[in-house]
Here is the input.
Amino acid sequence: MNAHSSPGIIVRSNEILNFFGKCPACGYPARASDARSVRTDGPLRATVSATCDLPCGWSGQLPLTIMT
Ligand SMILES: [Zn+2]
Here is the structure.
């Protein structure tokens, strides 16, 4: 869990239900847990804090990939 924020970064707590990213470790669908960071001082780029749906232990940042 990364709770600190930096200038130019907006962090929101929000569960993303329509997230379709995949775990880079095992390839299973990952769960977008809560944190979402959007840079405001550069190209539009969003990442989410994701965790693997399987207990492979992976967690980290993934690009925001949602069904639109
Ligand atoms: Zn995994």
Summary: Residues 9-63 form one domain. Residues 23, 25-26, 28, 52, 54, 56, 58 surround zinc ion (CB under 6 Å).
